[in-house]
């Protein structure tokens, strides 16, 4: 069965490459998942796999959605707060997740106005697919210079919100006040809403990113 909410990569000029994941479940582990797109019983998988250059198990841990929150499900050795975790547990903001002996991943909820989470590697390891980080999308994702942005873009003058509509991704570019020509006052530009179609480059005065479809292994 085809995933009607596929992941995309955003190649953001001056920032890096970020995955926007909309899957019900995201699994992380070694580069070679021992998996198939079809589970036993013929059910299509709803989980995507992201590899980490490491000696982790092929499917070391997974992140799943439940009532607007994210649940961590260990499959290999996982420690949080210097405590081994052997069963599924909800994640709290700023959680440092140790996978195996060396890999450390940070789980963060940057914005109080969005349930989307950010996953980054803090131990010097690298994600596959040239990724700097992963966004587990929950309705909206904020890009901008502020500390509450899911993807921090230090040199941007505007904020951009990525959101879903009918299983498609769009971005809303914030308005900005500017002086009128005669200096008599200020006028505010209307926000722009653009569809994030794979293969397109979206850009503005000081921002630009390329939207790319990515075929992730299903597990």
What is the residue-averaged pLDDT?
88
Please name the CATH architecture of the domain at 8-139 and 197-213: Sandwich
- Runs with pLDDT <50, length 5+? 35-45, 177-185
Helix content: under 10%
Strand content: 35-45%
Ends distance: 13 Å
**What is the oligomer described by this structure?**
single chain
Shape: globular
Radius of gyration: 19 Å
Give the structural class.
Answer: mainly beta
CATH topology of the domain at 8-139 and 197-213: Tumour Suppressor Smad4
Order of strands side by side in the largest beta sheet?
8-7-10-11-12-13-2-1-22-21
Name of the level-1 CATH class of the domain at 8-139 and 197-213: Mainly Beta
- Main sheet characteristics: 10 strands, mixed
Number of strands: 22
Helical segment count = 0
H and E string = EEEEEEEEEEEEEEEEEEEEEE
Organism: Thalassoglobus neptunius
Protein name: FHA domain-containing protein
Short description:
It comes from Thalassoglobus neptunius. The protein is 0% helix and 45% strand.
Attribute tags:
219 residues, mainly beta, Tumour Suppressor Smad4, ten-stranded mixed β-sheet
